[in-house]
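Now for today's protein.

===
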Amino acid sequence: MSLWFSRWPTCHARPYLFWIMAWAWVGVACEQQPVPPTTDTINQPIGASPQAPNGTTQVNPNTAASSTQPTPDPVPASPTTPATEGNDTLPSNGNNTVPTNANAPLPNGNDVAITPTAAVVSPIIGFDGAPVNDKKAIALTFDDGPDGAQGATDLVLDTLKKENLKASFFICANVGFADLETDPIAQRQLKRIVAEGHPIGNHTYAHKDLATLASDAEVEAAFSKLDAIYKKVLGPTAPVITTVRAPYGSPFQLDPTNAKRLGPVVTKYGVHIGWGMDTKDWSFDHFDSNPQAFNADVQAVIDAVQKLINNKQWGIVLLHAVHLPTAKALPTIIKMFRDAGYHFVSVEDVVRSQFGANSASIMAANKAAGLTAKAVP
């Protein structure tokens, strides 16, 4: 080419030939480079099925048929991220529903009302290992308080606050420790229980065995009288009580005949809450003023709980807010449960696991069906 170019007749024309050949060379080079396709917002070619950030395939609405629906994010088969410990260390299953897998943990929830489709006749949580679908879940409950000047209830509350845990308190008005109707210390303790976010359950006015009462009217009076005093102490803003617990668990634990008769009567005032772990802590309180004897009572409570752990029991834990050895043992008990791999849930979590709704929702549905006492909204 250089020889042919050197023989070009007009030297003034040579620059034009140079530019013509340069443009031809650029054109050839451009033809060899692919043109990038137009892309959407996640850098996938339009018309393709892009990969969402979580790895699921999305159908592009610009190219998909009108009958095609986007693929939803899959619900995890089992929870992987535990909720922060504080008000119950439940792992979350992400959708706040009752798991169908019997081995799945309880759903995490914050007592969100889930209205059942129908009333629940005689809603009763029994005395087995409930919640049956989570054998490492425990719910702390404390009976019989507040205890007034003795101070066990305050010590229990101090520990729960320090450990950032919530428990249900099934209160009485007069069981020999303090008269809630007249005792200012017991009234302060009740207000503290509520102010610190612990649910209240109705444990009757004077802790009498319901099976021994002469009539259904007396059974109702045991609950309604406590409810009236509770509302008097706390005033019109008192949280509505929607759980109950029969003293001694009677007749629901061991007396099926009376349980069938009294179930509809008792559950007019709330969902009945039994227990799965009976510490029998009350039996170890000898009201000893001698430090050595008192410490022996404390150790007996700890040993009783360790036995339950060794037996791999779970569920609702029965303790009492009126016994000083129990209050003193509580920090150790909580540590023992944690060290054994248990996590803390609420009574409402257990109610949801059994009925698909919390106690407030159940009582609302039951009220609409005429199954509750007038005192219970």
Observations:
- Residues 1-114 have pLDDT under 50 and may be disordered.
- Residues 291-310 form the longest helix (20 residues).
- The chain has ten helices and nine strands.
